[in-house]
Amino acid sequence: MRYETFVSRLGLKGHPDQPEWLSHVNAGVLKVKLAMAIIGISSIHLLRTFIEAGMMGTPTGRVTETGVMWQTIIHGMFIVSALGIAWVDRMSNQKH
Question: Cα-Cα-Cα-Cα dihedral of 79, 56, 54, 36, to 10°?
């Protein structure tokens, strides 16, 4: 089966029901917001890992040194990716 979605343009210009945020939200802004949300989630998970790192080497320890290293690297890559997305969005929206 094949499903298609058709979305028509909204003719809200000057309409009293037009949302205020609609004029300044675009795909680039949404990408940056999504990247920031992913970084926030990753930060919380990494913080939990750092807290549990004190138990490393004990029978109840759930994290390993390698696991902490890889989580830190992945979190860093999320940050670098978000900065790249924001930079590309800024460059594409500059007025010449």
Answer: 20
